[in-house]
Write a sequence for this structure.
């Protein structure tokens, strides 16, 4: 058990690509926490997708031993948090387990939207914050400008900021020392009744559920019987330990310490993040806890090959074991067959899950248009949550609809501001604030989530050549004039393409959708009308003309083999499409048709 | 019980892989060589006839086809030795059709008499265009005048003469093609192969096309209009299409090519030649080594694939639906061992592309133009 005064718990706050994972790597390396031969890049990002995309999805923890300039042996616990808005919830709960943060800012880039969102969470959690200006080895580094931004935009003192190059190692020692001298030691009473916070949990094939905890008071030992206060379940502690970052068993975890326990728990769902853990027969004042993460984006996932439905079920079950924020229910679609309607924290979360299913389980998927959750108020006074536009009840029974709104913060260099404002306006945004810090503008908008969920971020990146940064938080529901637009291909409704739109924009969206589909659907042997409709009223229409000529001029004895193989390939290609009546629609159409170009 | 190949009969294809020059549109197995050892080639081809006989056994040969390359560059003696060997080993029909492909140049004209003497009774000439500037663009070494002269000599030498034209050429208009086709039909021809120019990968045209350097190719609509016009004009001259690109006077259809389209058996002899042979109740696809020297001196047969019933059904349909006469529905169902999807058939009938009863499936004029889309429809499932 480490004395409280020798413990420092911290997280690192940064925008994506500002070097958070590299800085973590250096801290681990320079303290010899991991032998040089075992060192690899982005040590804390264990999933392939995390390494590939350079992002952190799950919070990871490492315990670092450090001897300070004062000669004391310190234990530093780092919780590495995700940087992306979708995983903001993971950030917020990780913040509650530590007392301080390093605010990493790329000194060539400056403060970005995600930096802001995360640093506000740190401020909310009463953290001491030590600014670290990274990438000072690069010629474009401008420490003074960044310091000014940090003070202007975030409003914290940047005079003690540490210039660092995580790449060369410069400033790493100073950073370690600042953690010890500037961040507070945790508080707690080793002799009080056990009180620990359940920070996170995940499933391990060998050990069952692993629970990440922060001990507040008392001591946690192997063999104890503990109780999860939210549901009263009792478990026998099999093993406790810390991460270095590999698991290492220890005998006792005292107050202020961060570590793990296993207790033969079978499912992640049996553990509730933010829960308070105590002794089996004791009662303590529970911690405030966290609100569980709510999925905000829904879409259907269907196997391309319908024979793979059971494989998909298994894959989703396994992924859900480890990700309590991912929800799913079975769905059947007239066109796509059996699949699942899945809920995600955001689009990145959706993409990550989809990629993992395709990659780790080798199942090709059709992903339907993402949709948000609408609140439908019925005339009988009841309210239903609409996850799928296809389930929209009959309009005569509906009183009104509400849609989720977000508060979006966008930081962008001056010269792109006009385009950004236009984009927000086009997406039904309401400007809440517009301020400048140097040559950068910060626009704050109230936007409907359904206008953002699909391709807003792509559009934003494209109109600002990648220079804008964006973050958002949910602000609640508001009534608006929303209608369900359905799409008919060859007079057959295609449920997977129906969507909720604002009435004023329905015609424009309908036209864009029909034009897109006309491009995406291959020509058939007959002409195909493509229509968008609200209720029974057609609001847009295109006609895909019939294929006129597709015939091989020469075909003799020597051509039979080649020709047959060509047709076999063509037939295999057709299998990747979905049949709606007599029309084959390629799977990419389900996503591409919804992207807006303007 | 009759074997499936008997629906189409049996023919022998002999491939002569040499040309005087390679045409920029041609993706056939042809090679330019400074000299050819004709005697060695004759020996090898004769040997292959014997090997073929050992596989298929006693059969009645209905046709022999010398293709290439440019088989009119063969020495008549080589042709004679091959035909003699076929006569020695196989039985033949009385009206056996023996076709030889020829370029319409003066070199060939001088050999026509000799070819006739050794047994060739049908000539298929690669005229390709009746327009000198287009002939040059197509890389042809003859002029229109030469082609007409060669045609006249062939006409007086052989029982039957066919020639090929390529249309939908660069910058060709509908009116130009109409005039050109009409003048071709006014020659005393009994068979015409009229091909739309197809840009094949691996050819000079293919490379230029990929680089965007092949301009003036017709749009899909113009190509379709030209195809329709071709059908109408030829019908008016009493030479309706009996296959997608082939037109003939009554009784002048190519018996050899009908073996392919009716999915009969054929021996394929010579570099790159393909065959379909039934033996011991199984049907095989064969393919010969493509490089002439490797074929001559090495192992010649490189592929022998046992064709499943399903594959045979595919091949039978994709070849047979090219014919105006269509295919036997019963034969298709026997090959694939399941009924044809009547829903799909009904839809194709409703949109006017095919006709079908319990006996046959026939692709109509409107359907021929989208044949590549029709065939997979019939095999879905």
């Amino acid at each position: 058990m480490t004395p409280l005064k020798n413990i420092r718990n911290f997280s690192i706050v940064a925008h994506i690509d500002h070097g958070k994972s590299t800085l973590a790597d250096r801290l681990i390396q320079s303290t010899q926490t991991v032998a040089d031969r075992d060192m690899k890049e982005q040590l804390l990002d264990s999933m392939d997708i995390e390494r590939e995309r350079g992002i952190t999805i799950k919070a990871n923890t490492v315990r670092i031993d450090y001897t300070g300039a004062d000669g004391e042996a310190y234990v530093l616990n780092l919780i590495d948090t995700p940087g992306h808005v979708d995983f903001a919830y993971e950030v917020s709960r990780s913040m509650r387990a530590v007392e301080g943060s390093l605010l990493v800012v790329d000194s060539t880039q400056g403060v970005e939207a995600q930096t802001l969102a995360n640093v506000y969470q740190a401020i909310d959690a009463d953290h001491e914050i030590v600014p670290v200006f990274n990438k000072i080895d690069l010629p474009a580094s401008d420490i003074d400008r960044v310091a000014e931004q940090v003070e202007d935009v975030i409003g914290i003192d940047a005079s003690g900021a540490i210039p660092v190059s995580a790449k060369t190692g410069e400033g790493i020692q100073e950073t370690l020392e600042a953690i010890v001298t500037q961040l507070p030691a945790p508080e707690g009473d080793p002799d009080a009744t056990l009180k620990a916070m359940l920070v996170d949990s995940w499933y391990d094939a060998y050990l069952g559920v692993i629970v990440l905890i922060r001990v507040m008071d008392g001591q946690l030992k192997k063999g104890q019987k503990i109780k999860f206060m939210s549901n009263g379940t009792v478990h026998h502690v099999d093993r406790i330990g810390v991460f270095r970052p590999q698991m290492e068993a220890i005998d006792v975890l005292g107050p202020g310490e961060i570590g793990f326990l296993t207790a033969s728990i079978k499912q992640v769902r049996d553990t509730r993040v933010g829960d308070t853990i105590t002794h089996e027969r004791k009662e303590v004042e529970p911690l405030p806890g966290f609100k569980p993460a709510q999925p905000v984006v829904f879409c259907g996932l269907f196997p391309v090959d319908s024979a793979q439905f059971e494989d998909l079920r298994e894959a989703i079950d396994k992924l859900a074991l480890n990700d309590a924020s991912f929800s799913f229910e079975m769905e059947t679609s007239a066109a796509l067959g059996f699949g699942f309607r899945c809920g995600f924290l955001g689009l990145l979360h959706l993409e990550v899950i989809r990629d993992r299913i395709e990659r780790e389980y080798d199942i090709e998927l059709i992903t339907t248009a993402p949709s948000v959750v609408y609140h439908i108020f019925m005339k009988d006074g009841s309210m239903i949550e609409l996850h799928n536009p296809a389930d929209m009840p009959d309009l005569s029974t509906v009183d009104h609809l509400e849609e989720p709104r977000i508060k979006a913060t966008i930081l962008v260099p001056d010269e792109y501001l006009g385009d950004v404002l236009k984009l927000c306006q086009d997406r039904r945004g309401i400007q809440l604030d517009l301020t400048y810090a140097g040559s950068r503008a910060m626009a704050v908008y109230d936007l409907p989530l359904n206008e953002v969920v699909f391709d807003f971020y792509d559009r934003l990146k494209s109109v600002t050549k990648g220079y804008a940064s964006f973050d958002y938080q949910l602000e609640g529901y508001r009534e608006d004039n929303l209608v369900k637009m359905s799409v008919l291909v060859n007079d057959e409704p295609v449920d997977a393409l129906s969507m909720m739109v604002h009435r004023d924009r329905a015609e424009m969206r309908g036209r864009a959708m029909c034009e897109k589909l006309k491009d995406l659907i291959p020509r058939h042997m007959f002409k195909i009308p493509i229509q968008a409709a609200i209720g029974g009223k057609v609001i847009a229409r295109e006609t895909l003309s019939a294929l006129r000529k597709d015939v091989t001029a020469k075909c003799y004895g020597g051509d039979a083999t080649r020709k047959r193989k060509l047709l076999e390939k063509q037939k295999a290609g057709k299998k990747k499409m979905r049949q709606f009546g007599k029309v084959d629609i390629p799977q990419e159409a389900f996503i591409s048709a919804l992207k807006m170009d303007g | 019980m009759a074997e499936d190949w008997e629906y189409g009969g049996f023919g022998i294809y002999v491939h002569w892989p040499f040309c005087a020059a390679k045409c920029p549109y041609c993706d056939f197995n042809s090679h330019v060589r400074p000299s050819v050892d004709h005697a060695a080639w004759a020996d090898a081809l004769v040997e292959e006839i014997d090997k073929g006989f050992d596989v298929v056994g006693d059969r009645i040969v209905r046709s022999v086809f010398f293709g290439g390359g440019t088989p009119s560059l063969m020495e008549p003696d080589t042709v004679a030795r091959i035909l003699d060997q076929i006569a020695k080993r196989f039985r033949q029909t009385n009206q056996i059709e023996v076709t030889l492909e020829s370029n319409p140049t003066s070199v060939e004209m001088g050999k026509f008499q000799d070819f006739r003497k050794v047994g060739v009774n049908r000539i298929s000439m690669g005229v390709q265009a009746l327009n000198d500037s287009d002939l040059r663009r197509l890389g042809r070494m003859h002029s229109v005048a030469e082609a007409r002269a060669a045609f006249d000599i062939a006409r007086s030498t052989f029982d039957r003469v066919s020639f090929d034209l390529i249309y939908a050429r660069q910058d060709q208009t509908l009116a130009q093609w109409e005039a050109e086709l009409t003048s071709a039909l006014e020659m005393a021809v009994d068979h015409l192969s009229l091909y739309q120019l197809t840009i094949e990968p691996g050819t000079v045209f293919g490379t230029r096309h990929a680089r965007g350097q092949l301009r003036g190719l017709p749009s899909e609509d113009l190509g379709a209009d030209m195809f329709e016009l071709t059908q109408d004009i030829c019908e008016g001259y009493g030479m309706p299409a009996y296959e997608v690109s082939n037109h003939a006077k009554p009784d002048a259809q190519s018996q050899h090519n009908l073996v392919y389209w009716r999915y009969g058996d054929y021996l394929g002899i010579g570099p790159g030649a393909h065959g379909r042979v039934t033996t011991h109740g199984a049907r095989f696809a064969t393919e010969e080594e493509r490089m002439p020297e490797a074929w001559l001196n090495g192992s010649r047969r490189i592929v022998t694939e046992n064709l499943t019933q399903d594959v045979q059904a595919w091949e039978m349909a994709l070849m047979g639906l090219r014919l105006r006469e269509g295919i036997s529905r019963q034969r298709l169902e026997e090959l694939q061992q399941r009924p044809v999807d009547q829903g799909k058939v009904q839809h194709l009938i409703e949109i006017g592309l095919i006709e079908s009863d319990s006996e046959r499936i026939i692709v109509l004029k409107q359907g021929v133009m989208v044949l590549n889309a029709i065939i997979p429809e019939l095999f879905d499932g």
